């Protein structure tokens, strides 16, 4: 995926989950943050951030903060980007049918696919928390994530092939582990899913200020 109009700025502060103060060409500007996670280890005062200009000139926040420069490289923090790039990637995987936002049980699973007689369910998670070259998810407790894992686990018993795909939103990282320090229950649910036959994919990315795309896929062994 490509962003249309990217500008560079310097991060100042984040008053709440939805907005940040950023210096753009010497002017302090209130911008929208496209990630409601904590991102405390990323959004540090003075760091370089990348912002997409809003298409609506009347919007109160004229930019969306989508990426941040860090010592390990540019990290895309746009929480909407993983589903976009996964759809692009799935289109190259020769499925017969792909449906995003598939209603299943009491949830909407990110993708439903068909290939031959097989039916697939895939839930997508973006990973921006990196420690010592390893990705960790989640960066904040996610009851929704636990719910999705348990629904994927139950789907296996109903004949579906189920997958959870972690989109790693920085280059050079090829593995994601459950962040049990932050949310132990997610780690338990992930292991239960693996034991039931849910496939875990690590989708490695190319990341630029104005671009994110999946370059390779590793699988949990």
DSSP helical segment count:
3
Alpha-carbon Rg, integer: 18 Å
Helix proportion = 10-25%
- Which of globular, elongated, flat, extended, rod-shaped describes the shape? globular
Annotated CATH topology of the largest domain: Trna Endonuclease, Chain: A, domain 1
In brief:
This protein is α+β, with helices and mostly antiparallel strands. A hairpin with a 5-residue loop joins β1 (6-13) and β2. It starts with 5 loop residues before the first strand and ends with a strand.
Describe this structure in words.
The strands form 3 sheets. The protein has a 6-stranded mixed beta sheet with strand order 7-8-9-12-14-15. The protein contains 3 helices and 15 strands. The longest helix has 15 residues, at 143-157. It is of the alpha+beta class and 221 residues long. The radius of gyration is 18 Å and the shape is globular. β7 and β8 (107-115) form a beta hairpin. The mean pLDDT is 96. The chain has helices at residues 81-90, 143-157, 184-196; strands spanning 6-13, 19-24, 27-33, 48-53, 63-70, 73-76, 97-104, 107-115, 118-127, 129-131, 134-137, 161-168, 176-178, 199-208, 211-219.
Q: Can you lay out the helices and strands and say which pair or pack?
A:
Blueprint: E1 6-13, E2 19-24, E3 27-33, E4 48-53, E5 63-70, E6 73-76, H1 81-90, E7 97-104, E8 107-115, E9 118-127, E10 129-131, E11 134-137, H2 143-157, E12 161-168, E13 176-178, H3 184-196, E14 199-208, E15 211-219
Parallel strand pairs: 3-5, 9-12, 11-13, 12-14
Antiparallel strand pairs: 1-2, 1-4, 2-3, 4-5, 5-6, 7-8, 8-9, 10-11, 14-15
Could you list some keywords that capture this structure?
OB fold (Dihydrolipoamide Acetyltransferase, E2P), Trna Endonuclease, Chain: A, domain 1, six-stranded mixed β-sheet, five-stranded mixed β-barrel, about 15% helix
